[in-house]
Amino acid sequence: MQGGGGGGSSSSRALLGSGPSIASPWPRRGLFIGGGWREPALGRRLPVVNPATEATIGDIPAATAEDVEIAVAAARDAFSSDGGRHWSRAPGAVRAKFLRAIAAKINDRKSDLALLETLDSGKLLDETNADMEDVAACFEYYADLAEALDEKQRSPISLPMENFKSHILKEPIGVVGLITPWNYPLLMATWKVAPSLAAGCTAVLKPSELASLTCLELGAICIEVGLPPRVLNIITGLGTEAGAPLSSHPHVDKVAFTGSTETGKRIMTAAAQMVKPVSLELGGKSPLIVFDDVDIDKGLSEFKSAVEWAMFGIFANAGQVCSATSRLLLHEKIAKQFLDRLVAWAKNIKISDPLEEGCRLGSVVSEGQYEKIKKFISTARSEGATILYGGARPQHLRRGFFIEPTIITDVSTSMQIWREEVFGPVICVKEFRTESEAVELANDTHYGLAGAVIANDQERCERCRRISSCNTCKICRLQALHSGIVWINCSQPTFVQAPWGGNKRSGFGLELGEWGLGNYLTVKQVTKYCSDEPWGWYQSPSKL
Ligand SMILES: NC(=O)C1=CN([C@@H]2O[C@H](COP(=O)(O)OP(=O)(O)OC[C@H]3O[C@@H](n4cnc5c(N)ncnc54)[C@H](O)[C@@H]3O)[C@@H](O)[C@H]2O)C=CC1
Ligand SMILES: N=C(N)NCCCC(=O)O
Ligand code: NA
């Protein structure tokens, strides 16, 4: 590990707990404010727990309102000093250079960042490695968009009067507060940091206290690439102590948040007092519908593929994904054979320390999350559902917050397990008979982030679409799904180029793609009167 540290190394091989030996201790970090490391005002720190071993492996600074004050002032200063020439009003191409340099450093440090994130969160190494690739790609992508922004400035607006000319300017919204979760620690931060910096905003990032290590390393990378000091500030700490004062700060112009719906409501309430815009990426209870034309007798490979996507949709990242397809809707004709396969595949998942090769289910992020998931399972049982598979700690793992992949049937729509987000490797299953029943069940939720459909009749769909606005075939019925994302014949693929965001209680304000940049821009109209004639509305006084 490189970069400045706020003191010596606090971790050691012993602290890493069980698993293969690792010789990669990381520096003890301070808060990243004003381009360097700073001890929190009250001098407090929070323990870092490896959830796969339950060992405490280090600590992070615990920021409070005092630190938020300093970080926001730093970001404010970076936004407006020198009339913004160095950052907020610099050409997008200038900012793009830094974003590309950050991407290159992330790529250089991919394996140590992936390891750090695995130790901090319990996510398995193949996942954290893939996430680091996505992080680098996201910085690269928004570097491209920062460059393209220069060409989009001053685009003319055509007006119906010749004596006026109008154009638009896209300007950074100002200082942004970015509050992010633990499920994809550095990636979720990057979905906000990369577009906000590309737009010319300056930022204060507050990652989740449950997994902040890689976000602090982003601070070290900013030092290495010479990012102008104060443009990005990173403060770790508790939601109530560091997140809340950031979201209510009068000098923060916008808050972008990913996390629980409950916290999203709090952030929106705090921001409302100042009419501060927010974007919220909240929870979900997304459905995956499998139709009966995915039939084992018709095609084994299609059937296997459907089973595998259903697994990936809920067991990837141990189900700690806002878009996890946690409600499985099976056509009654294929339900039994599908569930038999699903159980067989679930049994085959390697559950282990996330550092082990071939691991496909790591631990969940924390003891709190572990207890919460177990409670969901026991409530489902007591409400009359059947735990078809899983539901407990894997017997071979004595330590760590591991939960078996869990499949729950005999579910009714009034049960908690059907209605509430678990954020764990737990899927609940219902059968349907008709397409309209499937769509109705899919939409039977307050959330609206994603939905997935596995069916075979896409060719028919394409044919219909060319002819008319068909509303009869299965894929066209996707229009009836009330979600911001629809996946066809898959679940969870995520591309930086495509918009990401939900409706209903899953929040609002799109991330990723060009929409993600728009989240951090304001559009200003500039309109000029360009006639030599006076306007002529008032009568000129006769004396003149
Ligand atoms: N949509 C998503 O991606 C996520 C959803 N969740 C859901 O939330 C549940 C609880 O997880 P938590 O870690 O407690 O999520 P959370 O929503 O409380 O935490 C997300 C972020 O918000 C911050 N925060 C907490 N309270 C705050 C406040 N009053 N003001 C400002 N910031 C605040 C946290 O420190 C963290 O950085 C999970 O079980 C899951 O259901 C959690 C993480 C991500
Ligand atoms: N990178 C992938 N595959 N998914 C991102 C999920 C984002 C979320 O849980 O908010
Ligand atoms: Na942790």
Major sheet size, sense and barrel closure: 7 strands, mixed
Which strand-content bin applies to the residues?
Answer: 15-25%
Global shape: globular
Strand order of the largest sheet: 14-15-16-13-12-17-18
Small molecules (ligands, ions, cofactors) in the structure: 1,4-dihydronicotinamide adenine dinucleotide, 4-carbamimidamidobutanoic acid, sodium ion
Poorly predicted ranges (pLDDT <50, ≥5 residues)? 1-24
Distance separating the two termini: 76 Å
Mean pLDDT: 92
What is the rounded Rg? Answer: 25 Å
* The CATH class of the largest domain: Alpha Beta
- SSE class: alpha/beta
Overall structural domain count: 2
Helix and strand arrangement:
Elements: E1 31-33, E2 36-38, E3 45-50, E4 55-61, H1 65-80, H2 92-108, H3 110-121, H4 125-152, E5 156-157, E6 164-172, E7 175-179, H5 185-199, E8 202-206, H6 213-225, E9 232-234, H7 239-247, E10 254-258, H8 261-272, E11 278-281, E12 286-290, H9 300-315, E13 325-331, H10 335-347, H11 367-382, E14 386-389, E15 406-409, H12 416-419, E16 426-432, H13 435-442, E17 450-454, H14 458-467, E18 485-488, E19 507-508, H15 513-518, E20 521-529
Parallel strand pairs: 7-8, 7-10, 8-9, 10-11, 12-13, 12-17, 13-16, 15-16, 17-18
Antiparallel strand pairs: 1-2, 3-4, 5-6, 6-20, 11-19, 14-15
The structure holds 1,4-dihydronicotinamide adenine dinucleotide, 4-carbamimidamidobutanoic acid and sodium ion.
Keyword list:
Aldehyde Dehydrogenase, Chain A, domain 1, binds 1,4-dihydronicotinamide adenine dinucleotide, alpha/beta, 544 residues, 6-stranded mixed sheet, 7-stranded mixed sheet, binds sodium ion, 2 domains, binds 4-carbamimidamidobutanoic acid, oxidoreductase, disordered N terminus, Aldehyde Dehydrogenase, Chain A, domain 2, globular
